[in-house]
Amino acid sequence: MPSPPEHTLLYALTVQALCFTLAVVFIVLIYAWLAYLLGNGSLRHVPGPWYCKVSNIPLSIYEILCRRSDIILDLHKKYGPVVQIAPNEVSVAYLEATKQIYGTKDRWAKSDCYLLVKEVLRILRNTSTSCG
């Protein structure tokens, strides 16, 4: 039985080494990303399940299944009035905090969507007072 040419064997070893190296680099990058999100993120002190701290996929699945509110309520029962539900999203079930965050005073930065809501409410208020 003839032995394989050396360059074919060398090529196979090189491809195998390259695949192994890429797999190791991928695993290290995933580990570093998870370590950052779980340990160094700005919301690391907020309680919540670990999988919600690293991905918004669970929240999206809850939304698709129309169970978002039920799941978030269960998370509040387990973790308390403030729960991290996604890497950059927190749910607050504390009345005073909700008033501060969503209140009419401009203490907290809000997205442009709130400006639109304020304008719609102003128009509705003006319409209702002029009709009656």
UniProtKB/TrEMBL annotation:
Q: What species is given as this protein's source? A: Fusarium oxysporum f. sp. cubense
Its Gene Ontology molecular function terms? Answer: heme binding; iron ion binding; monooxygenase activity; oxidoreductase activity, acting on paired donors, with incorporation or reduction of molecular oxygen
Q: Does the keyword Transmembrane helix apply?
A: yes
Top-level taxonomic group: Eukaryota
From the Swiss-Prot or TrEMBL record, give the protein name.
Uncharacterized protein
TM segments? 12-34
Sorted alphabetically, which keywords does the UniProt record give?
A: Membrane, Transmembrane, Transmembrane helix
Query: InterPro entries attached here?
Result: Cyt_P450_sf (IPR036396)
User: May I ask which residue range the UniProt record assigns to the signal sequence?
Assistant: none
